[in-house]
Amino acid sequence: YNDTYGHLQGDQALQAVAKVLKSTFQRPGDYPFRLGGEEFGVIITDSECKNSRAMGEKVRTNIENLKMEHKGSKVAQVLTVSIGGICIVPNADMGDDALIHAADTNLYAAKERGRNQVVFGNKL
Known about the structure:
Helices cover 44% and strands 15% of the residues. It is α+β, with helices and mostly antiparallel strands. It has a single domain, classed as 2-Layer Sandwich (Alpha-Beta Plaits), CATH 3.30.70.270. Strands 1-2 form a two-stranded antiparallel ribbon. Strands 3-4 form a two-stranded parallel sheet. α2 packs across α3 (49-64). The termini are far apart.
């Protein structure tokens, strides 16, 4: 997006994505955050995997429905997102790195499958 429209519009796109995340994840145990660059993370507590995946799909659809022009995209003429997630009940032995790596693996799977989609798994 930045390559096509520049960093200022890229920042506006990130702000629009953040607003979608904020409006979608409003339960007390939901925690959206920025990982850096153009990546965001969300911790969803007390949720079945199918519900978490449905929330990811809602985010994906809501961002696409913003209809923010993206002429540089090979996927769509509007801004889209790829989402990778992990559904797991963490324990004290799991490190942050393992959880992030598993979600990141699913994110890359979403990108490899054509982008603008949601891929969730339940294994580290």
